Amino acid sequence: MKRVVKKTIATVLSSAMMFGTMLSGGVAPVFANVIASDTSDITFDVLAEPQYDDGSVDDSGFFFMQGGKFGEDTDENAVLVVIDENGKKTEIPSSTSEGRKFTKAVTATSGSFYNMVELFNGNQCALVRPDGSYFGGTDKFFEADYIQPVSNDLVLIGTDTGKTVSVSKKDYTKVYHIYDYKLVTSTGKEISIGEQQEKEFYFNYYSDSVMVGDIAVLSSLRVIYNTKTDMLKKVSEDENVKLRTTGGNYYAVTENDSTTVYDGTGQQVMTVPYTSIDTSVLDTEGYAVVSKDSETVLSWRSKLENIVSKDGTLWNNTDWNEKGADGVSMSVVNSEKKIYSLSARYANQTGTSSAGRPQYTYVSENYLYSADGKLSMDLESEIQKLGTQSSYSNISGQYYSFGDNLVISVYDLDNRNTGAIFAYTEADNYQNGKKLQGNDSTVNNTEKYMLTVDRTYTSDTEYDVNYKLAGLYNEQLESISLQSEAVDTVYKDCVRFRYANDRYVFYLKDSDGAYSMLDKNGSLEGKYTYDVDQLEVGTPADSRRSEEAYVYGASGNKNDGYRISVYNAQGTKIVSDYTSSQIKLDGDKNYLLVYEQEFAGSEYTKYLLCDHNGNVLMTNEQYGLYDFFAADDGALLACVYNTDADGNKKFGAVKIASADIDLDKNGAYIENGEIRYYVNGKVSSDYTGMSVDAEGHKYWFDNGTAAKDKQVYSPADDAWYWFDANGTMAVGKDVFIPKSNDDRSQGKWVRYDENGHMVKGEDYANGGWYRFDEITGEMAKGFYSVEDGEDTKLYYYNKDTGIMEHGAVNIDGTEYAFDDVTGVAVDKAWYSVENAPYWYENGVRQGMEGRGKEIYDPISDGWYWLDAVDGGKKAVSKDVYQESYAGAYADREDGTGKWVRYDENGHMVKGEQMQDGAWYRFDEQTGAMIKGFYGQYYYDKVTGQKVFGAYTIDGVPYAFDDTTGEALDCRWYEIDGNEYWYENGKRQGLEGRGKEICDGYGMWYWLDAVDNGKKAVSKDVYQESYAGQFAENADGTGKWVRYDERGCMVKGWWKQDGHEFFFDEQTGAMAKGTVVLGGVTYVFDSTTGILLSWYK
Residue 509 to residues 501, 516, 536, 574, 776: CA-CA distances in angstroms? Predict the structure, then answer.
């Protein structure tokens, strides 16, 4: 039943009486006088007559039960009826042809199930919205013994596995059930968490399962779930590790004595050495409050030990705990300049109570600081200075912020009528306070106006005070002329008008008890002369409603009933002499409810519901009021009831349209969490395009529906945009766009610039370079190649952050290096890591496999070895065995295998080199260490060292020059006092009986094989060589020769041991027998050769 009612007093009253008679069966309502200053159309729509056995309402619709009660088991004939705010009705029977659909339906308190009702059937559960749709999909039931919402699009479900676990507490043992937990999205996707001990909630200052930005924080399960990336993470199995939300858009993990804070994207923000942290103002004011007492932080008993800046450091480098502060608090004085007020409280024990508890007095110190940590003002010192300047003896004072200004009031405690007001401005760097008129002041910070007064105590009674207005100042501290009537009037009270609108700033009480409003132009308006026992300024009591200021007064008492009058923010009396046993107000900007209620949450025993102009909309004479909500479009949704003849309540639904239509209301608006597009004050259902709200946020509408969690192409400017889950355009942020809502594990990261345009190509942000695909805008992660002429440049972008990597990076177990400036993969070049050089090819560190790798560097024209033993590091001052081609000096028959040496620069050594006192030689082409003979030189086959002096090679004695190492050729070499003869380095006289040699001076010697080729000295030797006339053999060979003490062959006459001998002058053969020499005949012993006789 819908009707349009013209809101004059008569029509409202008659409508109310008509409904009262029709619905409640007989008694016409009696209304108070209502002052209605305007007339306009309202829509009173009965969406459902009172007919249902149980009912509930929230801000999106109604839930009713026919044939049962919510929260109780129902029979098979029960029906759940859901009605959305537009009147769409859906009936869900508890039984179908397939059997029971549900056996119990449960509605929750406001918002806890996000506008849904639970349907239970055994251990199966479904969630139904007011529009009849099911969470997770059509007729979607979940196996669930436990269900808890996390957001509009995410719920936590637990199923009892039948298992239990006993946990010992301090003085008892508790048995917990084991549940199998999972998260379920609104599309029906399930994310398994696994089996876990049943949730034990934390009963303190943080919530158990909530959304923090993109992150679902499940505190008692110690689990987080990133809804953007579809990543589930178990924070810890340790029950001593605490996961919790900490205020603002943050959550934290506390382990031992350390707490790490994360933002709504899952990025780490700070780590502090405290067990608790409050981040409520971290975004807006840049600091957090920390404590070691996680259970009492932020309570009045808490010891707030310190204040931490956003970078995790102590604010202003001050440890207030060490300074002995009992509590520390901060507030922003100037949001632009980030000027903070800091108050530190110190406790001094003064004694002990009768109960044995310590008693304290407290002293506070107040400071002003700038965000850079430099002291701006010591408030106590400043107050003392101002008081001294004012010639006060017992100085006291206080300060408060006023817009971007600071106001300090000083007093003389010995003279209560003294006082001076000083204002400090940002333009003057908060120095040299400007003295204002008056001796006391009050402010309306909402509208940024300050009122100063001259306060005079007329007696010793504290409240016997006269006020006269002294000045009115705007935010720029410009003085506004006050109406003469306002200045000349004596006031008994002056109170700021909280939540004032754009006209009224303060309300004042004169000496006659009358109240007046002072507007921002200094004029008195809206004088309330009604004589009441109390007059207050307040907002509706229920925090569910939006703020709207009302002035209300009452006379009488609770027993006899109050007479209540209410004024709206425009100073118009909208309710007069309403009688009630209680003074309670509720409502929002469009509606006001004056009511009686036995206790909070119970039914309204008596009520008057009107709009903000006093037009009566509904009273208890029409319907019993069970509960009401303001819908997204400003309409009022009320769950009402009447009582049948048997005394049973029957529930129904009423919708009252918004009182006024603002024809100037155009564009995007956020109302009760929903985004709507208005045209001339009405919601448009066909607008498609971009819109900007009053705060500058941009939205996209498709046929009036705001795009959420969605990518949109705008043909008007040929650009792609992304709109977050809250509908606002992504600006200056990265966004994960899933491939599909059913599988959010796949997708792409993209970036939107300060204009909301999708970034393509390279972009610098967050201290690093990123790359986005030129067509799709996808953020590059991993390797990325760029063609540059004939070259291909390789880059790597971090797989988690997308930031271009520079320097040394380990990627999937492989070492890479990228240029420190350009980020290009290091290719065929050196890169130092911890001062050690490594060689990279196409970004990959070389020499990590096998024994290592030999490389050629064209820049230095050198060969180098990358040693696998040292992780591919350049071999320096080291010999290395390589299995590569070695040429003539290969160790193997196939021409491979060599020892090479690398000098202090890592260069492969070629040619001859001295090291550690020894000479080595390396092939000029291959660098192979030469071993064995090299021309007239020899290098040890094991060490490669050049040989000098005597040396045995393959069992054969050799000798090499002691200085040059050149093989001795036809030269003597002395060993242990004995001389040996060498030819081409090889010792002679080792074969047969020996060898006869002639040196370069014509001297003949014998190398005796018996003595390993040693020079024969003072010795006769038989030789089978040519012997001439003294030959012993018929063929002219065979002779005895003698070598003297020098080893020289004896020739001619020779005396020895008293005997004479003769040796052939040519062959050295010893004469034996009868020999004619020079015509003389000599006879020599035929054996010994001794001369026996001679004759001519």
Answer: 19, 6, 11, 20, 67
Task: Measure the CA angle with vertex 835, ends 834 and 836; round to 5°.
Answer: 90
CA-nearest of 386, 394, 485 to 436 is 386
Average per-residue pLDDT for the chain: 82
What count of Cα atoms within 13 Å lies in the side-chain half-sphere of residue 16?
A: 22
The residue type found at 747 is G
Structural tokens at position 570:
């425009």
Would you call 929 helix, strand, or coil by DSSP? strand
For residue 792, the surrounding DSSP H or E stretch is strand 791-797
* pLDDT tens digits along 862-903: 889 999 999 999 999 998 988 888 888 888 888 888 899 999
Task: Collapse the DSSP code of 148 into the 3-class scheme (helix H, G, I; strand E, B; otherwise coil) and give the result.
Answer: strand
Q: Name the token pair of 626.
A: 């069970």
Q: Reduced to 3 states, what is the DSSP secondary structure of residue 429?
A: coil
Instruction: Give yes or no for a contact between 1013 and 1019, defined as CB atoms under 8 angstroms apart.
Output: no
DSSP state string for 249-266 = SEEEEEETTEEEEEETTS
Of the candidates 26, 53, 106, the one whose C-alpha atom is nearest the C-alpha of residue 641 is 53
For residues 237 and 495, give the distance between their C-alpha atoms in angstroms, rounded to a whole number: 55
Contact between 1021 and 1029 under an 8 Å Cβ cutoff? The reply is no
pLDDT of residue 812: 93
State how far the alpha carbon of 941 is from the alpha carbons of 436, 725, 931, 1037, in Å: 103, 78, 5, 43
Give me the pLDDT at residue 986, please: 94
Q: Which of 488-492, 532-536, 680-684 has the highest mean pLDDT?
A: 488-492
Residue 59, Cβ density class (10 Å: 0-12 exposed, 13-18 middle, ≥19 buried): buried
| C-alpha distance from residue 81 to each of 46, 67, 1033 (Å) | 15, 11, 145
Q: Give the tens place of pLDDT for each residue, 313-344.
A: 887 778 887 777 777 888 777 666 677 888 88
All residues at 6 or more sequence positions from 710 whose CB lies less than 8 Å from its CB, including other chains: 700, 722, 723
Q: Would you give the DSSP letter of residue 868?
A: G
Give yes or no for a contact between 123 and 143, defined as CB atoms under 8 angstroms apart.
yes
What is the secondary structure of 466-517 as a DSSP string? EEEEEEEE-TT--EEPPPHHHHHS-EEEEEE-TT--SSEEEEEEETTS-EEE
Which of 457, 450, 458, 516 minimizes the C-alpha distance to 488?
516
Question: CB–CB of 596/581 below 8 Å?
Answer: yes
**Roughly how many angstroms between the first and final C-alpha of the chain, as a whole number?**
180
- With a cut of 90, say whether residue 982 has pLDDT above it: yes
As a whole number, mean pLDDT of residues 925-936 equals: 91
Per-residue CA distances from 458 to 397, 452, 487, 813, 1004 (Å): 22, 19, 18, 85, 148
What H or E segment, with its residue span, contains residue 982? strand 978-983
- Residue matched to tokens 């035929």: 1086
Three-class SS string for 695-715?
CCCEEEEECCEECCCEEEEEC
Residue matched to tokens 């479904």: 126
* The predicted structure's pLDDT at residue 446: 66
Q: Count the alpha carbons within 13 Å of 158 in the hemisphere toward its beta carbon.
A: 17
Say if CB 882 and CB 889 are below 8 A apart: no
Residues 6+ apart with CB under 8 A from 256: none
The encoded tokens of residue 877 equal 């001052």
The answer to whether the beta carbons of residues 477 and 491 sit under 8 Å apart is: no
Across 111-127, average pLDDT = 79
Amino acid, single-letter form, for residue 1032 = E
Chain-centroid distance of CA 1029 in Å reads 113
**Region of 1012 on the Ramachandran plot (φ > 0 left; ψ -120 to 50 alpha; else beta):** left
